[in-house]
Amino acid sequence: MAHTTGQERSESGFTMLEAVLVFTIVTLLTAMISQSLMSLSRNQRWSERQTMALSKAEQLVHGISGDLEVAVRVFAESTSSRAVLARLDLGDITPLEGSRMPLATSRGWFEPDPSGRQETGNLLVIARTLPPIAIATGFGTEHARIDRYQFVVYCLRADGTRLDLDRWASVPVARADDISAVMDPDARANVVMGLLAAGVPIAWRPEDPNIASALFEMSPTGAAPRLDPAVRVPPAPGEVRRKLLERAGLGVARNGKLGAVRVPGYAHELPGYPHGFEVKLDGDGAGRLLLVRLVAGAELKPGEAPVAAAVERLVSIREP
Length: 320
Fold this sequence. Notes:
By secondary structure, the protein is an alpha+beta fold. The chain has helices at 6-12, 16-69, 79-86, 176-180, 185-197; strands at 71-74, 104-105, 123-136, 143-159, 162-169, 173-175, 202-204, 215-217, 226-227, 251-252, 256-258, 261-263, 277-282, 287-298, 307-318.
């Protein structure tokens, strides 16, 4: 029987020790490559979600800015502003407990709230202009031009542990003085009925700070709009939008720190206030400047960094 020497075994293949070393090295390289691929996948997923969060936050703030650019009134925190909010039929939309409208300042710039003072708001209530409407008076081709407004509310809502933003918008409301300017009673009656037919059931006198004497209800008989201290402004069909961030899998950041973003940015952190939606109002007279800051984000899988996008926008407001 033929026998092979050690040298022949070495030349003909791997020794057991060499095979174990090769296997160990291949296993370690495979694990390292697998870890690198997993890390790359996590980073790519985080980058995609971060980009999406920023895009969605910018889109939402752009929509808020669009409402503000045609605003004729931004309601600052006060008893009279709370009375206006109470006259809006918000239905099941309930502002987060502790929410506040902004206080108006006159510094000419924006800075964090001074110690002991809550100037920043996290509840936005405005009246915006809508295109005017021409209503036939019933006298030949004569029409009355009626200015129209719309009340809009942006407020935080709690959905379990998650925060989101709701938008509520009212039906169009007519400028009460434009109706009063139609002197002929029959023509005015036609205008009132025409407004009702056009989906404008309420008239408003924006110059009157007392909402109880500023809202009027249209009459289906065509009689002059009557003052009704109990009338509430209904929502516009299809214009109440709930959970504006939910579809994108995002929410409004809570107080604290989400990723590298600090919440809040301007207000003092208090229970239920303000979280990641902040509104500041500055200026007096006809010109005002409003700052909106939104922090949108989401937690990913355990152990992964959360996504967080902060967007700020300045909007000039021209109140009559």
